[in-house]
Amino acid sequence: MKVVPTEVISKDLIRNFFIQHWGSPEMIISTGIYSCDELPGYAVIDDAGKIAGLITYFFRPGECEIISLDSIEEGKGIGSSLLQAVENYAREKQAGRIILITTNDNLNALRFYQKRGYRLAEIKRNAVSVARRLKPEIPMTGNDGIPIRDEIVLEKLLV
Description:
By secondary structure, this protein is α+β, with helices and mostly antiparallel strands.
């Protein structure tokens, strides 16, 4: 499995990936509004030249925020490899921590990140309602029929 920086991949391929998997490349969370197809990141490209996994991030002095992480096939190490690439980058840039936000319904993400050393840092109650005003296509109900309401901030200290 080869992890490559997104800067070596066609912007159209990345944009289409987000449209296919998220409906749009736009991500609205409490830390900001992001065009994921414009953010730095890493990807895994399969043998057919398609994106098998993609991670994007936003870097601030001392902190790296993961904005999106998608793996087309679970259990193959794609997500873990992409996460490790961002963690390595953040360490090189001397970030003290990595943060990310997921929603209360995303039990798979909560499990995935906690197994990799991330800790629950904050719950932002009703934050998805605020995001939904700007992006009405955010569904009311998510995984396993759980109402999507809150954002959960996870962090991993790198120092």
